[in-house]
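Input/output pair, single chain:
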Amino acid sequence: MAGTWFHLTSSFLIVCYVIGFLISTVVAENHQRPPTVLPLSLSSRNHSLHRHVDNLRRRLFQSKLSGSTPNARLRLYDDLLSNGYHTARIRIGSPPQEFALIVDTGSTVTYVPCSSCSHCGNHQLEIKRTGSSLRILFLVRIQDSRFQPEMSSTYQPVKCNPSCNCDDEQKQCTYHRRYAEMSSSSGVLGEDLVSFGNESELMPQRAVFGCENVETGDLYNQRADGIMGLGRGRLSIMDQLVDKGVIGDSFSLCYGGMDVDGGAMVLGKITPPPDMVFSHSDPFRSPYYNIEMKEIHVAGKRLELPDGAFDGRHGTVLDSGTTYAYFRRDAFAAFRDAILSAVHFLKRIPGPDPNYNDICFTGAGRDVSQLPKIFPQVEMVFNNGKKLLLSPENYLFRHSKASGAYCLGIFPNSESTTLLGGIVVRNTLVTYDRSNDRIGFLNTNCSELWRRVQFSGAPAPTPLVSPSKDTKMEIPSVLSPSGSPSNVLPGSFHVGFITFDMSISTTDSNLKSILKELTELISEELEVDNSQVRLLNVTSQEKDYLVRWGIFPAEPANYISNTIARSIILRLRDHRIQLPERFGNYKLMEWNAEPQRKLYGHRGNIAF
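Output:
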């Protein structure tokens, strides 16, 4: 389990307060997963007044904006249950340096490892590309991704001033964040251009971020480079962009479903779909994003709980940096019993980790689409009477050691706060409408987000190719890693099929099952039909495999359409195929676009 991270201020009094708080609340009984603690931060008497003034100032500013503002659209990566989080790719500096940052609504600072860091872990793999003509070779090597201020022509340190803590030399502002699971991050504050990728219509913006000098605990060991803080606070990337007037005061997250990596994120306003349901969110009650949840129904029956069961301390908190969900103990017991009663015919089995007393079931089958026929429907009811439907994938996680088995993803919290992590909002568009103090929910297929949601003030995305009935494909020039123009594909020709090689290292002996599941995942990642993805060849050396895949036209066509071909090529070129960690380590080695041929129907030499 990857718990969320909520920051504490660095003053001595607050640290002492939180240590005492954690000692009294963080211990979990019966070896359950330790709940995520939401510590209160000490503040001045005028804390609420300052927040009210900030919100009022921001809303007045927003009301004066003429027309619509753009938004930043980003794809999310990684598997929620394998990694415990989702990441977005953010670029900082000139020329841009890319980082994979955890999307965290419970953090208020965005930070990445600094080149001067004295204690930072090894994080993402760095990808180098070389090659020419129709072939690009991908060399993947382990290298620590660290921001190099000296390499950016637009970087400026945030100079020491009365409103910040300063370094020992009293020259640069510093930050320090310590989290509930006792990891920490500290470093200096800098300002530079932050860009949000090619799919975003928002231009690069100057923003303040943390350049880490020391990281400890889970922060040191995680794959992701750092944190993208979306919480409420002056250093939050959201607050900075909103204060500049470049986006509306809203953002949206959409996580993929069970066994589906990634998702999507929008920084800025969207037009809410008509069937989106909203709950009030009180920014003065808590620094965290909260909703007003009144009750829960399981299989149409209300859980018998006292009034206010989901209204303790901070209320019901949404946090994208938390994996699972945590209810007050009596609420958890009632929910657990209702689920057990509904699936009494399923066999109980031990969980995947003997250190935790997980509640797991076997006999439900591997097909996620069939789970609603076995497990009950759950509804969250808000104070305004609106209801959010939760499917089984919103309260179950797949057992990692038993096929067709699932475990409850809801756990007891040792304090009164209800905490809803990413599992609860899988395949749910969640809009944090901060300007109207509300949070909206829409059950949807997050992989189809762009086709379902209208973006406020956003022009239609630039087509991948010019609309034409001509079957010839010309791909416009793009920027190579060096920044100079180069063609992804030279000249014009019909694309008959695309091949790519993948190196896989796994300890799983059932290669046939792995390759069959990989076929389905690759088709999802490349957004093509399963029948178009074909296994062409496999060579092995001990536990290392070199697999060649082919992407063929959808029958009965004899070529791949312009739009689909370019989308596939760009995804391969940019190493966008993201697979769950259960498949072991993999490297995308090379891809090759082949011209149209009369005979292209080879379906591979391995039968599933």
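The chain has a mean pLDDT of 76. The radius of gyration is 25 Å.
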